[in-house]
Amino acid sequence: MLKTSDLIGFPILCADEKNFIGEVKDAILDLDSCRLSGLIIDYGSIIHYTRVIDFNSIYGISKNEVIVKFKKNIQQIKNFKLNEKFMKKSEKIVGVEVVENEGKLLGFIKDVIFEEKSGNILGFILTNGVIDDIFNGMEILPLDGPIVFNKNKFIISRNSRKSILKNIGGLKKLLELEQ
């Protein structure tokens, strides 16, 4: 399990040439199928280009690098099929409101949690601001119910709201002020 923010800056290694070819700049999320569809990378040694690696072309992701099987799997962005309705860069997801279907604001997306072997999105880390995060801790919204992305908002059902994991860390928990 990794967060998309963990990937930023990871070196990209090519297995067929056994050398460094770039570093991760962002992740592309497919909100329709709820998975990572690719990585945006800074590619090249002297002259840098922005390129994309389809997630299916990734051989493996470890705790400190991404391995691509073949150099030929690195594509220009214009050749990558990016459907703006369903696919977003992770940087465009961060800060998006999460609301209950009745309109109640639950927080804002801080990060995306995914499974590194399959690319499946497991959930979202929510924030209510730095001070609230420090005092109360983070919240995690598992991806176990319907989530609709509509007009730059994530809309979840009341049942999905009940599955939010609260107080992941925070001073309240550390000082045992909350049971």
TrEMBL record:
<feature type="domain" description="PRC-barrel">
    <location>
        <begin position="91"/>
        <end position="130"/>
    </location>
</feature>
<protein>
    <submittedName>
        <fullName>Uncharacterized protein YrrD, contains PRC-barrel domain</fullName>
    </submittedName>
</protein>
<dbReference type="InterPro" id="IPR027275">
    <property type="entry name" value="PRC-brl_dom"/>
</dbReference>
<dbReference type="Pfam" id="PF05239">
    <property type="entry name" value="PRC"/>
</dbReference>
<dbReference type="InterPro" id="IPR011033">
    <property type="entry name" value="PRC_barrel-like_sf"/>
</dbReference>
